Amino acid sequence: MILELALVIAITDGDTIKVLDNNNHQYKIRLASIDAPERKQPYGLKSKQALARLIGNQRVTLDCPKIDFFKRHVCTVTLNGDDVNAAMVKQGAAWVYSKYYKGTEYYNFQHSAKSQGLGLWNTSEYQSIAPWKWRKMKKEGQSK
Predict the structure, then answer these.
(1) Domain locations in the chain?
(2) pLDDT digits (tens, 9 = 90+) for 89-121
(3) Using one digit for the tens of pLDDT, what is the confidence trace for 50-60?
(4) Catalytic residue among 4, 38, 39, 59, which?
(5) 53 carries an active-site annotation
(6) 4, 59, 72, 135: the active-site residue
């Protein structure tokens, strides 16, 4: 599915948004190839705010080749031709989601952000736990 100029109506967290298409149909969108800190995880709120600054209340284009387990469209989001998913990694607001990303460009952006100490790579609250590991720890902690 490709949506042209969908309006961003909500930022759920640093890698999930809600949009309206031109017919006022609402979609929940998961940004492809990145994983942002969870809301209750260190840097979670800052990641959400970074995404809001980039695309909040803007009209974006979505390229969504699949739907995930949670029925979210998994998309590359662009604003005026710029890759928003990549921008989140470039500014240190999200990790490359290595389980799903098969390219190299995002890794270069992540390495640069990390070496420059940008975003989550330069905060006292950051505890160097990738979101997928944090979710697993939380799930294991609840099952005990």
Answers:
(1) 2-142
(2) 999 999 999 999 999 999 999 999 999 999 999
(3) 999 999 999 99
(4) 38
(5) no
(6) 72
Is 105 labeled as catalytic in the residue annotation?
A: no
Classify domain 2-142 by CATH architecture: Beta Barrel (2.40)
Nearest to 15 by CA among 112, 88, 73: 88
Helix, strand, coil share of the chain (percent; to 5): 30, 30, 35
Which string of DSSP letters, residue by residue, matches 22-91?
TT--EEEEEETTEEPPPTTSTTHHHHHHHHHHHHTT-EEEEEEEEE-TTSPEEEEEEETTEEHHHHHHHT
Q: Catalytic site residue 59?
A: no
**88: pLDDT strictly greater than 60:** yes
Measured in degrees and rounded to the nearest 5, phi and psi for residue 97 equal -90, 90
Residue 144 pLDDT > 70, yes or no?
Answer: no
